[in-house]
Amino acid sequence: MNEQYDRRRRTLLQWLAGAPLAGAVGAAAGKDGAQGREVARIGDAAMALEFDGNLHCRVVSKRGTRPAAVTPFAPSERLRLSNGRWVERFRLARQEADRVDGPHGPGVRHRLTGVSAEGIEKTVAVTFHERHPAFAVIRVAYRNTAAQPLLVSAWANSAHTLRPAAGRKAEFWTYSGATHQDRRDWVQPMESSFEQRNFMGMNASDYGGGTPAVDVWQRDCGLAVGHLDTVPRLVALPVKAVAGGAALAVEFEQEATLEPGAMLETLETFLAVHTGDYFAALDRYRQVMAERGLAAPDAPAASYEPIWCAWGYERDYFTVPRMTGTLAKAKELGLEWAVLDDGWQNNEGDWQLDATRFPGGDADMRGLVDKIREADMKPRLWIAPLAVDPGSDLLHDHVDRLLLDKDGAPQLISWWNSLYLCPAYGPTIEMTRAWVRKIFGEWGYQGIKIDGQHLNGVAPCHNPAHKHARPEESFEQLPAFWKMVYDTAREVNPNAVVEFCPCGTSYSFHTLPYVNQVPASDPLSSWQVRHKGKTLKALMGPSAAYAGDHVELSDGGDDFASTVGIGAVLSTKFTWPIDPKPKDSFLLTPQREAQWRKWIGIYRDKMLPRGVYRGDLYDIGFDRPEGHAVAKDGRMYFAFFAPHWDGPVEIRGLGPGRWRLRDYIDGRDVGEVDATRNRIALRFEHALLLEAVPA
């Protein structure tokens, strides 16, 4: 019986070898010399996946001078039983392929089916679309062919280990889209002990959600995986440094009982191969998701205007006179927005005006907005939806709006000592809609700053008053809540700026279609300002309105280069003419004023955020010095960063002809290059910002 099966399988593979498909690499059979095994090969002109007789898979990159296997054979798609054991071997029984067409354009879908010893039939469907090379869309189905029910607990897709290239030592970097309470870097080198689970649910009481994609790369090649659902899902995307390289996967906990004949389908996931750093993979992910209906909106012109924020006075020292007394200086320096930050409200939840600062109530708030407009600036208001304080009238009168866990306990938002409201509950939605209408319609604000580390994700809600079909609805419908906020603001004011700031955490990709400005979100370093900018330009588009957040949060409190050089919107929170705080002063001294005036003037002159960020030109992990590039108005702008640099630098992305390089900060020429002779010796401390102009 086994000999018959083996003959049929060999015949099948030989037949497939003679039946190539136009538009695909085709299916082929052959011997893998390293393993001595028969393989079925599928793919496109840039990437191939090879499956052996047990449906173990390896990834082949075709982006180099010749194809090269970048991962070993591994049980990349597998099912976990309720006893914790993974089912990993499925004897290949058949392979099929057909043409497809849809939102991603034409392509070829391959289906490989195998059966395990436990009687589980697995079908791996892999689709390659012509317009998205080296980007495989994967969905797996498991069917119970046995006579007894099967208890399962999880599945994994695209579990691969990227190996070092031949002759290279093991050096890897990773991008991870998960949210963490310690507000760690999104982009990190992978040390030998590196490991992150990257769960897209709650990783702390009020830290959760994120972008469901991870990437690992080395100098020669990178791999990225993630899920392609249009609503957030509670997947994990583990990344781990292992002896053979860098491992990654998409995993999903899904307890189910499969009756005989019943089927379990995974989410649709992706596997991408790229060169350079993670930017290329995230940019492709953005394009694919846009074709599925999720795309960041075009930012209005006001989203790019430089910002002054009253948060320099902070909550305890903010007063209306101190804010209005700073407006003239902010406008004189060239700033266009004035943001009223945390401290205007009586509490989180009721969102009434603080009577000590606004004794006249709504009339005083409208008066502040008028003064901002009289200063020829645009008013923006800080808000933190979905938070409700103990002791507030809202909590007393509407306890039914709380998000509750399975034990009936409320979920804590630690920063404000608040509790979560459920974003999928009708009364919460309607209350927030009315509040946004008041901010824009009655008070006259032109923008809002939505703030809080709790914005990206919420826990599953078990509140019986909400009648959720499943507790996960609270998490899955959170983006719809932010869509309501965005749509309401734009209904009242079509040019409204909706800024979204999740307090140091990674952004939820599923929220980005409903905001038109994103900041570095409480960066802990200039490195975070820069790599968050690269990430969000990939996820939202190369001309996204990404703000470097308050420059006072950068290294030294004055690193304008890390904002201006990468094409980020400039923002500051200086105080003037005094800073009443006993420590952590942000006072605009005469010396600092000269510096602020210079950089704000450069920002307004170049307006690089409105250009096209070229994240494909420099590898943020391996290129030294660290490089960023922006194309705008027929010119190229480069920003290089290093503690100290004295040596050659490659100027990439230039068109034909000679280009003159100029340090546009200090106003000095540094030489000429062209596209073929593009290396030039440079010397600088910390940063050098160059403008390349056709000679």
From TrEMBL:
The keyword Hydrolase is assigned to this record: yes
Keywords, in A-Z order? Glycosidase, Hydrolase
InterPro entries, alphabetically? Aldolase_TIM, Alpha-glycosidase_related, GH, Glyco_hydro_36, TAT_signal
GO annotation terms (biological process): carbohydrate catabolic process
Tell me where on the tree of life, at the top rank, the source sits: Bacteria
Q: Does the keyword Transmembrane helix apply?
A: no
**Protein name, entry field:** Alpha-galactosidase
Q: Name one GO molecular function term.
A: alpha-galactosidase activity
